[in-house]
């Protein structure tokens, strides 16, 4: 599969009164056609900033210090605002976190869906209306004709998120960025929205970047997962690799702090707090919170070590000179499961 | 629609009730004013005063006077002025209210329009020299009294350039330009500051970001999505502002020799011209309650969440 998006060595800082905050520190990844990449990480790890930089919708005090964002070979960092306006909403679209506030309260739903159609596809009023109606039906809102004339306050949270999805999909974008699209919804609605997104992805064959801090959601929707910590990707791999053969101690911490059916005693919590990105630590940013930290972790930043063709992790534990350590029991159980599954698949000659 | 008519009917009823209460309270307060309606009292004999009091019904006990006045109100009789050549108050008001209304209305429309434009530009160019300049303009406009502007405008456009009359009211548009400008400064400054704040809020909202993500330009978003939402709170401010301007400004009317209502009101109070005081008060209040109703209707038009609809929302 070809790469539709390649992000190379992205560095983004924010000017604040206290100084320059290094929000994104050398992020590189690619996105293949039709795949779903989930970016997980805690608040402030730089997930949203990464996606806003792809849209080129960063706030005014943000600076892209370095790096390229290649969309079909075109560097979006160097693209003019005018040309970006032709890409936003048409080639790359976005779904936001809070459906309660992401629709204009004084404009009818129909008009809001028709807006990108009129803008990019130059449809006239009637055609845009017809297409908007189709989209509303596509995202599963009954009584679409009547709903077109209504305002956001007449819709529930889940219905509004369906509308937001309809807006994003209006021009059949190549890339859909979903920034925590289910965080503000209750669990049953979450499941419906995720189901809808999967269904629609198959229909229009779009690539999705899915931002979330909910690992349960990741397992549901993603093909590949990137774990982000303190403005860096610390582990990237397929869902199975990251969930069942995690290598980075931060990923271990994330997985261990997620309740499972087997969880009986108290839930694990990663000790400490994320580093101050005004003055990022030397070495591995996770070292102060890492019980397996070695001396080198406080001195030198680990590079991305290759675990498999698709699986990389940035931890010195993967260096050949690193001592063997004993991962937490929870993680060992996962790795065991992974090996069994892997062996079973191989004996059948299938792919993982 | 039926619900709406019922709602509207209730509103009109409350409007009239408010007016009635204001008229009653003003009536009794007015009776507490010191002095008599006779300016040259020393020249009048006791007998003459007695005759006049009898003629105007001022000898009756206050409650009787009150009832007879209210009774007149219900048939549309505002009484006769003691001062202005015994003209009926209604006639007095109708000849005087026109110029005040015209200039006030022009000032509100002009002031808020340019205030909104200035506020929007200011918000879009946040923290640049344009923003600072417009803030400065607004603060100056708000803090310098309008009669200073009135005089400055006279100096520039009438004396220096000679384009417009200094102080002449002929009912034409040309003679209304300078007073309109002088009165428009305050609403311009107010709405510019207000809209800037609102607009900065709106521009930071999620739906504006979503509109940007659709591919709209910054200005496109500001006009299609921003302004309307930023206007909603301004409407609240607009009502009282409009009334204050349309009911006349004594000083500006004096400077430009406009036969408006402001002058008349002050004169009627200093001379205890009871029917005129009542007439002007009722007129002011009627305008205020009417504009409040208009503001509420405007809210509904601009903000669908407030709209009273028979369908109902959830």
UniProtKB/TrEMBL annotation, chain A:
Transmembrane segments: none
Keyword set includes Cell wall biogenesis/degradation: no
Record-annotated ABC transporter domain positions: 7-255
Lineage: superkingdom: Bacteria
Topology in membrane: Peripheral membrane protein
UniProt family annotation: Belongs to the ABC transporter superfamily.
Stored PANTHER family: DIPEPTIDE TRANSPORT ATP-BINDING PROTEIN DPPD, OLIGOPEPTIDE TRANSPORT ATP-BINDING PROTEIN APPD
UniProt protein name: ABC transporter ATP-binding protein
Sample GO molecular function, one term: ATP binding
Automatic annotation (TrEMBL), chain B:
InterPro entries: BPD_transp_1_N (IPR045621), MetI-like (IPR000515), MetI-like_sf (IPR035906)
One Pfam family per UniProt: BPD_transp_1
Subcellular location per the Swiss-Prot or TrEMBL entry: Cell membrane
Membrane topology: Multi-pass membrane protein
ABC transmembrane type-1 domain boundaries: 97-299
Keywords: Cell membrane, Membrane, Transmembrane, Transmembrane helix, Transport
Domain of life: Bacteria
Entry GO terms, CC: plasma membrane
Keyword Transport carried by entry: yes
Residues passing through the membrane, by range: 12-30, 103-123, 144-166, 234-257, 277-302
SUPFAM superfamilies: MetI-like
Keyword tRNA processing: no
GO biological process terms on file: transmembrane transport
NCBIfam families membership: Opp3B (NF045471)
Stated family: Belongs to the binding-protein-dependent transport system permease family.
Name this polypeptide is given: ABC transporter permease
Organism per entry: Marinilactibacillus psychrotolerans
């Amino acid at each position: 599969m070809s790469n539709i998006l390649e992000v190379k060595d992205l560095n983004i800082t924010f000017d604040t009164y206290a100084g320059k905050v290094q929000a994104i520190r050398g992020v590189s990844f690619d996105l293949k056609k039709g795949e779903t990449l989930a970016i997980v990480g805690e608040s402030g790890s730089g997930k949203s900033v990464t996606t806003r930089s792809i849209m080129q919708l960063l706030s005014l005090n943000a600076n892209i210090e370095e790096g390229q964002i290649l969309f079909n070979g075109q560097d979006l960092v160097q693209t003019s605002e005018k040309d970006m306006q032709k890409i936003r909403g048409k080639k790359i679209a976005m779904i936001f976190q809070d459906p309660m506030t992401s629709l204009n309260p004084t404009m009818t739903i129909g008009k809001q869906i028709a807006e990108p159609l009129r803008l990019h596809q130059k449809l006239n009023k009637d055609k845009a209306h017809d297409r908007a109606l189709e989209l509303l039906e596509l995202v599963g809102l009954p009584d679409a004709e009547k709903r077109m004339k209504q305002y956001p306050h007449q819709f529930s949270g889940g219905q509004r998120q369906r509308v937001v999805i309809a807006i994003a999909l209006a021009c059949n974008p190549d890339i859909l960025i979903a920034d925590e699209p289910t965080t503000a919804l209750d669990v049953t609605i979450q499941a419906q929205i995720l189901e809808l997104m999967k269904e629609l992805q198959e229909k229009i064959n779009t690539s999705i970047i899915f931002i979330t801090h909910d690992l349960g959601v990741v397992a549901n929707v993603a093909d590949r997962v990137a774990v982000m910590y303190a403005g860096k990707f610390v582990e990237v791999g397929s869902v199975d690799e990251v969930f069942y053969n995690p290598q980075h101690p931060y990923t271990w911490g994330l997985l261990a702090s997620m309740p499972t059916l087997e969880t009986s005693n108290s839930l694990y919590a990663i000790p400490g707090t994320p580093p101050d990105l005004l003055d990022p630590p030397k070495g591995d940013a996770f070292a102060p919170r890492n019980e397996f930290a070695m001396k080198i972790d406080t001195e030198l930043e680990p590079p991305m070590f290759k675990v498999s063709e698709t699986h990389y992790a940035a931890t010195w534990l993967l260096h050949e000179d690193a001592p063997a350590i004993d991962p937490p029991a929870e993680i060992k159980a996962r790795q065991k499961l992974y090996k069994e599954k892997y062996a079973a698949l191989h004996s059948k000659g299938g792919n993982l | 629609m039926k619900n709406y008519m019922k709602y509207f009917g209730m509103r009109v009823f409350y409007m009239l009730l408010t007016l009635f209460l204001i008229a009653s309270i003003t009536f009794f307060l007015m009776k507490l004013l010191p002095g008599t309606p006779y300016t040259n009292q020393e020249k009048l004999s006791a007998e003459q005063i007695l005759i006049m009091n009898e003629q105007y019904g001022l000898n009756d006990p206050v409650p009787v006077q009150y009832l007879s006045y209210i009774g007149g109100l219900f048939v549309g009789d505002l009484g006769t002025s003691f001062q202005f050549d015994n003209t009926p108050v209604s006639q007095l008001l109708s000849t005087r209210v026109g110029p005040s209304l015209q200039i006030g209305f022009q000032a509100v429309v002009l002031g808020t329009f340019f205030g909104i434009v200035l506020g929007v530009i200011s918000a879009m160019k946040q923290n640049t020299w344009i923003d600072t300049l417009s803030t400065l303009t607004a603060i100056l406009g708000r803090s310098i009294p309008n009669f200073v502007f009135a005089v400055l405008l006279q100096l520039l456009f009438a004396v220096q350039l000679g384009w417009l009359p200094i102080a002449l009211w002929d009912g034409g548009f040309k003679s209304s330009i300078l007073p309109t400008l002088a009165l428009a400064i305050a609403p311009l400054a107010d709405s510019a500051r207000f809209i800037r704040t609102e607009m900065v809020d709106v521009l930071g909202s999620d739906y504006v970001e979503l509109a940007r993500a659709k591919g709209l330009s910054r200005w496109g978003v500001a006009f299609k999505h921003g302004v309307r939402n930023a206007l909603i709170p301004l409407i609240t401010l607009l009502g009282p502002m409009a009334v204050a301007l349309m009911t006349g400004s004594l000083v500006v009317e004096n400077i430009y020799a406009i036969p408006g209502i402001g002058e008349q009101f002050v004169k009627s109070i200093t001379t205890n011209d009871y029917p005129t005081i009542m007439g002007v008060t009722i007129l002011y209040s009627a305008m205020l309650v009417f504009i409040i109703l208009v503001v509420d209707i405007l809210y509904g038009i601009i903000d669908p969440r407030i709209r009273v609809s028979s369908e109902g929302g959830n």
